[in-house]
Amino acid sequence: xxTSSNCHTSFWILDTSLPSFEPLKEDIQVDIGIVGGGIxxxxxxYLLAKEGFSIALLEADALAKGTTxxxxxxxxxxxxxxxxxxxxxxxxxxxxxxxxxxxxxxxxMKEIVKSKGIDCDFSEEDxxxxxxxxxxxxxxxxxxxAYERLHIDGGTxxxxxxxxxxxxxxxxxxxxxxxxxYAAYLVEELVEMGVKIFENTPAIDVIEKKxxxxxxxxxxxxxxxxxxxxxxxxxxDGMGLYFSRMYAERSYIVGVTTEKPVQRGMYLSADxxxxxxxxxxxxxxxxxxxxxxSHKTGQSHHTAKHFEALREFGDTHFTLQKSLFQWGAQxxxxxxxxxxxxxxxxxxxxxxxxxxxxxxxxxNGTAAALLxxxxxxxxxxxxxxxFSPSRFYADPxxxxxxxxxxxxxxxxxxxxxxxxxxxxxxxxxxxxALVYYENQKAGGYKDANGDTYAVDTTCTHLRCEVTxxxxxxxxxxxxxxxxxxxxxEVLEGPADEPLQRFK
Length: 503
Fold this sequence. Notes:
- The chain is α+β, with helices and mostly antiparallel strands.
- Among the domains are: about 15-70 and about 180-245 and about 335-395, 3-Layer(bba) Sandwich (FAD/NAD(P)-binding domain); about 420-500, Rieske Iron-sulfur Protein (3-layer Sandwich).
- It is built from 11 helices and 28 strands.
- It has helices at about 10-15, 40-50, 85-90, 90-115, 135-150, 180-190, 240-245, 305-320, 360-375, 385, 395-415; strands at about 30, 30-35, 55-60, 75, 125-130, 155, 165-175, 195-200, 205, 215, 220-225, 225-230, 245-260, 265-270, 275-280, 285-295, 320-335, 340-345, 350-355, 420-425, 430-435, 440-445, 450-455, 465-470, 475, 485, 490, 500.
- The strands form 5 sheets. Strands 4, 5, 6, 7, 13, 14, 15, 16 and 17 form a 9-stranded mixed sheet that branches. Strands 8-3-2-12-19-18 form a 6-stranded mixed sheet, covered by helices on one side. Strands 20-21-22-23-28 form a 5-stranded mixed sheet, with no helix packed on it.
- The radius of gyration is 22 Å and the shape is globular.
């Protein structure tokens, strides 16, 4: 087995590049300002531009480079073992609405790919959840009964893939695709419709007025009738306290070639540790994407082991030839596992948010675009209440809120009392660690050129202490999921200021 690759970049990003756009350099005024250039922001801009609105789309980095570019690119309503849980927590009607909203998103994507002839490696595939343990089989049986109650198209099935299983649950007629090829088509359409697109333009605040103003890091403003926050973590909170109502998880993916052929399809284990499998194509070469190994961000310090565990799984069942790609993904999970899509709070009639897709951003993100478009154009939608950011279900929201914030408090204390064990000059190449620097605690890093850097390890969001992620070479906050580069630049919110760098 060749595991020589140490690539930390999604092969979606390597395989396809989108057009590049200049940063915003002046104050502008439009009907709608959208912050976040992933699948939700791009799709929402496309739908609203078709309705005749003038739009500015802002992205802090490059379009689709974040979560959209680091997905496994499944387009499915089979969101793990979710429907039995939804039946118990939110009831049959809202569970059905969740399923139907995601099916409508899937069908929207199918239709636009077909009608526009988008070359994005789109293929319809069934999806499967399989189980081997007694606990997994019990969960699978409950999920099967939920499918029957909710009239979900699927049921018990045999796996068409050569992997051990005792039972499996199939959802019919789902899909997979190349996310950046799909996004590239929509971006071309945005340009044709006159949408103003700005990359490398972080938005940091909203000035609330009758016509709110989006404020960028460079202090330019976008005056608009509606503000849409479709960035991974909401760039503006508006006292919605989103950082306390969601938590961040890291998961990992490897792209490998195998000696044993793998039957097309999408497969997910019901048992722990989770394993997600799907096939892809790279310039005619069959590729197997293996995902899993989830943990709360900042709470697994030796993340390189997660990539190795995925490769070992692939080698055991399919005999690996070569490991070509590896990357990590960050997912935000709400208290009840349903995304927040709608008005930022009840007091914000013209500021909207879409976040918390868990690991299912392709359908949830497209469902968000469809729902927000309906809200702005004042069309009826049956999905407003189920996704409303202002909703509250006593079970499980209270339990998860208390559990999550107890975990935050624990991590806050642990970070404050943890002491360094190295000096800055003792670091190896590409190593990061807590170090003593000028008689104080710091985050030290030595790059490939031998240059060393020291940063303050106190997260700029709410003062927790970041930890070193050795598999992805970043400083990660275990409290609310902010992530920073080795030299302190923000990679993921909710933090919007870099770590202080010591001279």
